[in-house]
Prior knowledge:
This protein folds into 2 domains: 3-93, Udp-n-acetylmuramoylalanyl-d-glutamate--2,6- Diaminopimelate Ligase, Chain: A, domain 1; 100-309, Hexapeptide repeat proteins (UDP N-Acetylglucosamine Acyltransferase, domain 1), CATH 2.160.10. 18% of the residues lie in helices and 29% in strands. The chain is built from 4 helices and 40 strands. Helix 2 links the parallel strand 5 (37-41) and strand 6 (57-61). The chain is flat, with a radius of gyration of 27 Å. The protein starts with a strand and ends with a helix.
Amino acid sequence: MEFTAKQIAEYLGGTVDGDGNATVNTFAKIEEGQPGALSFLSNSKYTHFLYSTKSSVVLVNRDFKPEQPVSATLVRVDNAYESLARLMSLYASMKPGRTGISPLASVSDKATVGRNVYIGPFAVIEDGATVGDNTQIYPHVTVGEGAHIGDGCILYPHVTIYYGCRIGSRCILHAGSVIGADGFGFAPTSDGYDKIPQIGIVELEDDVEIGANTCIDRSTMGRTVIHKGVKLDNLIQVAHNVEIGENTVMSAQTGIAGSSKVGSWCMVGGQTGISGHISLGDHVNIGAQSGILGNIKDGQTIMGYPAFDYKSFMRSSVIFRKLPDMNKEIDALRKEVDELKAKLQEK
């Protein structure tokens, strides 16, 4: 597939600086540019690469002003990074999807499989399961009894969907993710721990993406719910009865304990821990490696353990680094005070 700079600008609502007939057929980072490639520039740290890149076309923000001659054709857009994402999505959508059921797959006669579906070798679709139209199920995926997969989904190898769980349309589940394993529910007794049956389900709404080896546990009762548009990174743990609001994103190794609620449009940094039975409001931003121990109101930006206001955390971090010197100063001041007290007592 090949596109001209003029076609790209028209699609993105941008303008062309340079040769509108310059063509591209692939993508490349600006520092690794090559003829026929499309690159982008949105971070000023990479500006110096623009003047030497071999890429044919470069997306830049509309207000960008080059300080040196540029050989590449520039396409000016409102947001270069967002525009790149749109182009890459368009490129991916134009690739033909796989179809057909492998003779090595195990598909129950009691399952319902839609049109234009791909089911790879050694995938298992159990009794009562439903697979929607245009969904791709890669090798070694298991779709449990009575589970539902919507239209246009992609389940990469070794994804496991436990019985009764529901996946919306256009969801992407990366390799090794597990949807619907038992929640961590045990009742302490004098002899040890009795398992509490986890009889609920997990429900993923439309346009959710789940990273590799991420686990979302089924609820004790009711549902663990991931609302539409949520994006979860690799190696995330979502415990039973958790609810994550629309369009929230979470980075790798985050863990959410049971029955907590996370609002819409939140951004959670990697290795964050969120304790159980608390609520986070909408538009909450959490810095990496934070510990969330209580409720958070809408719109807050927090960091640290336990987490508190981001600006206060940064100021505290500066002071923390100075603590050894401050301790020496305090000891010296304490010594001076003791000496002054001794002199006053002598008088």
